[in-house]
DNA sequence: CGTTTTCTTGAGATGTGTCAATCCTCGTGG
DNA sequence: CCACGAGGATTGACACATCTCAAGAAAACG
């Protein structure tokens, strides 16, 4: 959708679909740095040049605002600014969680964490299956998962297979994952298990 | 200064000194997720519980505001909110740069990047030495550097030695680094070298 | 000084990356 | 309907970067 370095004279919240933010080094190594879901913003006030690549994962609908009018909207309607601040701080927290994952987790923990993150997000939409099982659709290819997690796609594939072999997950086709016991999966993420949700 | 899980009923910009934000896993692995410099905020509106550990690197002076009054200030003074939004978005960009470093850079590139980041920050304060050289004071121990970079302190030590042996940097004591040629250091970071500053 | 912290260096283990071959799964066109 | 091809996924063998464990050296500090 957008290449790093492009001129951006608009901001645009995602309305439908999923897009990714990523950075690429000269030799091709790429790291995903953000996942844009509906209501997330592409672009930001006070910046002319896009610093990251934006890729559509699925078909995406966005809602473009020219930047200049949007910036004056910010000034005239404080409520909008407050909402944006909330969102930015939430994204910052997500980024920090992600930094722990990238810097300190093992490949297996990374995969388990990713599945848990997606599962948690889906959980908010549709209820879990009756018996504590959960089924999630991975919206990403193995390569995209690798770029998200700071791994190679081969390692992703191996660890997914390993988790399957150990009974932590089951596969239905390539992209669908069945989680027999969420607690077992959470054990594998390396995160605190007791931690209640932070307010 | 603060442990993750603590109740926080205030927000506090740093006035003097340097502090770090970090997360720790049950088995002790820790990852630094933020560096708080003067003007950066500890705590955020709309959150009761501290999600991260805050550690003072040097003596730190902060300026505490009770959260409730501060939140009403946000509502009544839009300008403050806009400034906070700017800062949050800048931090988000920094976090994303950091994610690329954690996920995709080699140990040597990580070290070079860290030194370059600190050098750039210092550069804004005091001018460079005449002949293109630069001298920077590392405010961090090897262990803190390791937690910042997602490495072990042994690897940090080895890579610092390697950069010294290769003439990229020189050491004056343990904590002071002399950079004979900034461009050579930037080569080692793996970043785009041609990139002008993004606006 | 002695003690403690911080840093350096080595040897070996190990997790992840690299390179390469093969296998699915689908969609396309003969 | 089937062969074919392309993109994605899996698996294996091996290389290598980083971690782990351990011993010392150097600096900081009372």
Describe the structure.
Two copies of one chain form a homodimer. The first copy, chain A, is α+β, with helices and mostly antiparallel strands and 199 residues long. Chain A has two domains: 10-100, Jelly Rolls (Sandwich); 107-188, Arc Repressor Mutant, subunit A (Orthogonal Bundle), CATH 1.10.10. Chain A has six helices and ten strands, in the order E-E-E-E-E-E-E-H-H-H-E-H-H-E-E-H. In chain A, strands 1, 4, 6 and 7 form a four-stranded antiparallel sheet that branches. In chain A, helix 1 packs across helix 2 (78-104) and helix 4 crosses helix 5. The model of chain A has no long low-confidence stretch (mean pLDDT 87). Chain A binds a DNA duplex (30 and 30 nucleotides) through helix 5.
Topology of this structure?
The structure is a homodimer of 199-residue chains.
Chain A: E1 10-16, E2 19-24, E3 30-36, E4 41-42, E5 53-56, E6 61-62, E7 65-66, H1 67-76, H2 78-104, H3 107-125, E8 134-137, H4 142-149, H5 153-165, E9 170-172, E10 176-179, H6 182-189
Antiparallel strand pairs in A: 1-4, 1-6, 1-7, 2-3, 2-5, 8-10, 9-10
Chain A binds a DNA duplex (30 and 30 nucleotides) through helix 5.
By oligomeric state, this entry counts as: homodimer
Shape descriptor of chain A reads globular
Largest interface: A-B, 47 and 47 residues
**CATH classification class of the largest domain in chain A:** Mainly Beta
Q: What distinguishing features does this structure have?
A:
DNA-binding; 6 helices; homodimer; 43% helix; 199 residues; Jelly Rolls; 2 domains; three-stranded antiparallel β-sheet; globular; Arc Repressor Mutant, subunit A; four-stranded antiparallel β-sheet; alpha+beta
